[in-house]
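Blinded run. Sample ID left blank on purpose so nobody reads anything into the name before looking at the predicted structure. Input follows.
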Amino acid sequence: MHEYYFANYRLLVDDAISSSDRMDYLAGFSQVMPATHTFTIHMGDEALLDHKFSEATTFPIVCTTDSFNIHDTQNSWAFVSLMNEKSARYNIKHVLMCARDYSEMTLYISRQPYFYEKKKEWRMPWIPMSSAIRAACEAGMTMRDGMPLHAALVEKDGYGVVFLGPSGMGKSTQAKLWVEHQGADFIIGDRPGLRRIDGQWIGFGMPWDGKDNIKQQKQVPIRALISLEQAPENSIRRLTKQEAMMVLLNQVMMPMWDDAAMALLTPLMGQLATEIPFYHLKNLPNREATDLTRKTICET
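Blinded prediction complete.
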């Protein structure tokens, strides 16, 4: 088994999975951290793939994404690839079977080369770490005092600042401006993890990231969360708890298919909205926005 660590969780991965060059999402996350919970991923018998696929699809679909459906088999969760033209460009037929609490996962996947028509070349199937496994691990976080965010995270002088907002609102831009003008360290460009540990909110880099591919295995205490809005001038204001909850409802990656996980996540979001300052920053992509934000959160 190979060991990886994120957000004070340990991820154990079979050698058979780890040997794939498509598991590079985990690169850089092998430094041992104090782990409170463990997730384990096994490679299932490829000969069982068709049976597992057919069996899983007889159960109700509880969630649909661009690349897989989630089926509730009553005893487990089944993440089943869609096998449509779009998803087939990036992976081959697979089924990820998860325990109800996501602690144990077994991946059944074809390991036979396939012909990629668009490029006229043969390819090996890739392990869908960025989709099904990521979703399962993130759902498991919500049952273990954690939450993944659609956000960017920077560290400055030992504290963390989280930038939240819809795609295209400037999260990575503001994070990069903090690096340029405030001397900050860019920890992760998308999907940081937050956990409340010993009464303190900690932000973590995670093994997966979006378009920027910026991610570090680092952790930092959170000082503030900043909701972003592009505007013709810079201004910032403190949000109420109710406003902060509305931001979180739109930016936390929620396992909506899992009532048990959601029951734990909702009060955790309420604690975050109560205990950590939230701000709304109307901004231009310039140094003045970073100066205004830093001055405001440091005076709180």
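Unblinding after everyone has recorded impressions. The radius of gyration is 20 Å.
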